[in-house]
Amino acid sequence: MNRSFILSLMALLFSAFITACGGGGGGSNGGNEDNTVRTGVFIDGPVQGLSYETPTQSGVTNADGEFEYINGETVTFSIGGIELGSAEGAAEINPFDLFGMTPPTTELALRLQLNTRNDVTGFDRAANVAFLLVSLDNDNDPDNGIDLTGWDVDLASAELDFNVNMYAFARKFRYFAAAYGINPDVSPVQPLAHLYSSLGITVPIHLVTSVITDTGNNGTDNFVLQYGYDADGFTNSFKVDGDADGFSVKASLMVTRLRATFSRLTMKTTLMTTAVCPLRGSARHPLITAMATSRHS
Question: How does 260-295 read in b/e, with b if 16+ C-beta sit within 10 Å?
Fold first, then answer.
């Protein structure tokens, strides 16, 4: 009896010793957890005055767009009562990350996103967030950074749904802007163009430079429309030769006629590749649907 008692006592003491030394189970891994507070940057300018929160950290992004997190944590961003979205903490986070997607970097991929007018995609949601941020910029110049200072208070009770097609969002946003005194004059293409520029992404795109039309369908090209573009890809000029006797800049009626009869005419389109900020020109051009996914140079 005494021998059995002694053996049991020794086993108990040995078990306690192993536990105290960190043996057994997963105790040894706990000491290796990285609880270092890291600094990340929210990129769309950068963005100052954006609220953020993780399980252990919270605050407002500074002038450099910086926020703090611990490795493995999810960071949630908001402005007032409007939650923008969440992403795993990283050195850099941008609106696309909030919806788990990578921005399209080819013309085809970009056009596919721009043409989804009846669907709602991660691209739409990211575009909507970018639209809000640029609209709230205090000095209306996102190129020098986006400053949201003060909007956290002004929008404390606001609600805004980003789960909307980007084109519908831009239309509806005017009512939201009027209710909260927000700049209503932001161009629909500016926020995405700015976001791409902030991310250092340039997408080469095809733009229509001339449209040659055989109006009589008899093999004779007798209607020519030429487009000119500025360095950013915006249309800055167009000329029309409606009777093969030279170009005229007074072309509004002819352009209207051309668009109205677009589907009936045999058109020969010459395209050029231009490295410009995405969306500029390509999203606004009246003949974008005719170009579709053409890749001719």
Answer: eeeeeeebebebeebebbbbbbbbebebbeebeeee
Roughly how many angstroms between the first and final C-alpha of the chain, as a whole number?
A: 97
Contact between residue 268 and residue 296 where contact means Cβ atoms under 8 Å apart: no
Question: Which of 108-122, 221-235, 281-295 is least confident?
Answer: 281-295
Question: 192: Cβ–Cβ under 8 A, 6 or more apart, which residues?
Answer: 127, 130, 278, 279
- Rounded to whole angstroms, the Cα distance separating 185 from 134 reads 11
Tokens describing residue 85: 């979205």
288 vs 42, which has greater pLDDT? 42
C-alpha span between 120 and 123 (Å, rounded): 8
Rounded distance, CA 198 to CA 65, Å? 12
Distance between CA 129 and CA 84 in Å, rounded?
7
Q: What is the DSSP string of 27-95?
A: HHHHTT---PEEEEEETTTTEES-EEE-SS-EEE--TT-EEEEETT-EEEEEETTEEEEEEE--SEE-T
Reported as a single tens digit per residue, the pLDDT across 2-58 is 555 444 545 444 444 444 444 444 444 444 578 999 999 999 989 999 999 999 999
**Residues with Cβ < 8 Å from 144, sequence gap 6 or more?**
none
pLDDT classification of 247: cutoffs 50, 70, 90: low
Tell me the C-alpha distance between 64 and 39, whole Å.
11
The strand pairing partners of 268, in sequence order, are: 212
The answer to whether the CB of 27 falls within 8 A of the CB of 21 is no
Average pLDDT of the residues of the chain: 76
